[in-house]
């Protein structure tokens, strides 16, 4: 154990002893001897000064002197305070029938609960969890994901621009690019986070929402793996009887692409909760992965939608109003 640690240990053990201190002569004497005696713990530390390199000796010497001074003051104060208590002998009257203080207890936001549960489900099948920037450049949010400049697909995502080449990310797919730029394949990542879109606000659209991105890159990854993974997740999240459907779709960065809907019993309608597909070879090229060797799938779950289904909440806006009456129900 280093000398610093030993000093720390003496200090900690002293404090622990003081915490459980009781004012009896025997105990006071014991502690006196244990810490301040000729063969006590503090003397023991002074003993060891001889093994300390010469240039550090003055410094440690000073430290130990201070320690001894401080602890003995604390010790005296403790003995004094407990002695006075018992000598005044004035027992405080406590009325046990008075109501106690109520400590307001917070709760975990339902979105956070959903994110936590999603992370657990995917961690159990070998996904790592990663994060990326919410303010990003055009390259990571669009270009490297196979959205060429002026491509109409950019319109699919109503973007908040910070300046001409900087955006509030419209999806967590930007982190796919960051991950692949920084790590060699194979990869298996889950990326929870906030995303921003300049959309008309309604019960199922808000300017801010949450996604959980998944990226799986390896040799021989197939669409069947993607489907199995999504199905597995849905059954874990919503139970074996969950009703879902895959629909063909389009995203510039996946080919083929699909969307998955879940049946919303309360509204009697399908609700889209995830976009997914096989990573487009152009995406691999833009991060320097060889698309002849590596294949992959990606997905992006809409977390707010999942939370709405799970907790039977009809309006996405409730998540963002910070109304305690709503939040304390979870
Ligand atoms: N980024 C897409 C969206 O926000 C979802 C998605 C992620 C689609 C990954 C395919 C693969 O709509």
Notes on the structure:
- By secondary structure, this protein is α+β, with helices and mostly antiparallel strands.
- The chain is 40% helix and 21% strand.
- It has 11 helices and 10 strands.
- It has helices at residues 3-19, 25-36, 41-48, 57-88, 110-123, 138-141, 174-182, 223-238, 281-286, 303-311, 324-327; strands spanning 128-129, 135-137, 161-163, 166-168, 187-196, 208-218, 244-251, 254-264, 269-279, 295-302.
- The strands form 2 sheets. Strands 1-5-6-10-9-8-7 form a 7-stranded mixed sheet, sandwiched between helices.
- Strand 8 and strand 9 form a beta hairpin.
- Helix 1 packs parallel to helix 4 (57-88).
- The radius of gyration is 31 Å and the shape is elongated.
- It starts with a helix and ends with a helix.
- The model has no long low-confidence stretch (mean pLDDT 92).
- The site of phenylalanine has 12 residues, from strand 8, strand 9 and strand 10.
Write a compact overview of the structure shown:
The chain has helices spanning 3-19, 25-36, 41-48, 57-88, 110-123, 138-141, 174-182, 223-238, 281-286, 303-311, 324-327; strands at 128-129, 135-137, 161-163, 166-168, 187-196, 208-218, 244-251, 254-264, 269-279, 295-302.
């Amino acid at each position: 154990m280093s000398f610093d640690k030993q000093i720390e240990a003496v200090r900690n053990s002293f404090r622990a002893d003081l915490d459980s201190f009781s004012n009896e002569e025997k105990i006071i004497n014991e502690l006196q001897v244990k810490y301040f005696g000729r063969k006590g713990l503090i003397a023991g530390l002074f003993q060891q000064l001889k093994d300390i390199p010469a240039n550090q000796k003055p410094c440690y010497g000073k430290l130990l002197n201070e320690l001894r001074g401080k602890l003995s003051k604390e010790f005296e104060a403790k003995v004094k305070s407990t002695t006075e208590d018992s000598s005044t002998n004035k027992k405080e009257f406590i009325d046990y029938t008075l109501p106690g203080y109520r400590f307001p207890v917070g709760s975990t936001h339902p979105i956070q609960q959903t994110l936590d549960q999603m992370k657990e489900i995917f961690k159990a099948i070998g996904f790592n969890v990663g994060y990326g920037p919410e303010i990003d450049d055009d390259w990571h949010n669009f270009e490297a994901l196979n959205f060429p400049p002026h491509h109409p697909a950019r319109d699919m995502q109503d973007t908040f621009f910070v300046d001409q080449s900087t955006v509030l990310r419209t999806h967590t797919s930007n982190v796919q690019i960051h991950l692949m730029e920084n790590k060699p394949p194979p990869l298996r990542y889950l990326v929870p986070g906030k995303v921003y879109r300049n959309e008309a606000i309604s019960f199922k659209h808000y300017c801010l929402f949450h996604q959980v991105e998944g990226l799986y890159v390896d040799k021989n990854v197939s669409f069947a793996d993607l489907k199995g993974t999504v199905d597995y997740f849905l059954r874990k999240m919503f139970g074996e009887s969950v009703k879902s459907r895959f629909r063909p779709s389009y995203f510039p960065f996946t080919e083929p692409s699909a969307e998955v809907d879940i049946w919303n019993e309360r509204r009697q309608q399908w609700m889209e909760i995830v976009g997914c597909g096989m990573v487009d070879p152009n995406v691999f090229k833009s991060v320097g992965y060889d698309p002849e060797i590596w294949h992959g799938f990606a997905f992006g779950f809409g977390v707010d939608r999942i939370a709405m289904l799970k907790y039977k909440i009809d309006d996405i806006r409730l998540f963002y109003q910070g109304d305690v009456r709503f939040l304390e129900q979870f």
